[in-house]
Known about the structure:
With 401 residues, the chain is of the alpha/beta class. It has helices at 2-33, 60-65, 90-96, 111-125, 144-153, 172-195, 210-215, 225-235, 260-287, 291-305, 309-328, 336-357, 361-386, and strands spanning 47-53, 77-84, 100-104, 130-133, 158-165, 206-209, 241-250. The longest helix has 32 residues, at 2-33.
Amino acid sequence: MPVMMDALESVSLAVAALYTGYLVLLSVAALAGRRAAGGHRRPRHRFAIVVPAHDEATVLPKLLDGLSGVDYPEELREMVVIADNCRDATAAIGRERGVRVLERTDPRRGKGHALSWALPQLVGEARHEAFVILDADSVLTPDLLTHLDAALQDGVLAAQAYCTVGNPETSWRTSLMAGDLALVHYLRPLGRLALRTSAGLQGNGMCLTRRVLDAVPWDAVSITEDQEYHLRLVRSGIKVQFVPDAAVPTIMQVTMRAARAQELRWEGGRFRLARRQVGTLLAAAWRRPSWSMACTCLDAALDLTTPPFAILALFTTAWIGLHALRWAVGGSGSALLPWAALLLGQAFYVLIGCVLAGVPARTYAALALYGPVYALAKVWYCAQIAFGVSHEWIPTARRSV
């Protein structure tokens, strides 16, 4: 039994060290590579702001009303709402506010299907040079298009804005999610920007040029359509660049219960995609003649297999607790050291991400007080996925914003 435990710990330590080292590397790169935004440039590109919307009458007005405050020439932007199988006033709200509405009626529901239907139409019109995809519960910031346009002027073909929490002070969960998004949607892409790999796509705040959509048409219809399409871009040799100054605040669910279906969808879809794609990415990394693209494929595989950070930290803490108990009853404390070093690296990752993203003070308290609860919830979600609980697309109930 002791031999088996030692072997189990060795494997566990190697896995935890791999992913902790990966996150620390991204943290150091983000810390070293953060640059100030460039100066003002004359707007050049014509954007379509595409909003897939299924029964979003509650939240859509706030997003559409923000269009009047956008600091970008009106003749170079158009809002397009995809009213996807709507049973409420989503389409009527769009028309009342003078935006273009595309109505879709199809039994295949979901954001990926809606984009797969609408984007070919918009690309075929050749009226727009780039397409910015926003969720209906987002807030349209005045300078979003300005920053994305600057990136395109620098030759970027696909970009990702910073998806942040628009209501971080509403509840402990939204405060906690502000920290979560600071790590996943800010620090990690910022580190990849410094390392010159692909930032990834987050579903919300994606910017895709017509040139990219001509070369790699959108056909991603899974529940993780953003990650699925990103991997297609990577395999095609196209990188996504993170634009940290282009922020897209999103209204988050205020309780874990309300967000349960969404969490199951995120983790379940990611697990399914990893099973299908990791081998392909590793093979692509091996075959790539370019060192840069090989590293990009390898990074995408690592990102896809990285466990939820809450689980990684909980797992590390559990091993520390086990060794601390052994030490307390007279055993050696030397085995504590590697696990303690990993926990220190994980704390460094969290601290750097929160500082760089400028999260509110309440988020630090939420991470300390409710982080363990969130970690246990993540374990429960992953257990449900492992035992076959459905994680198909279910519309998220919206709250008024």
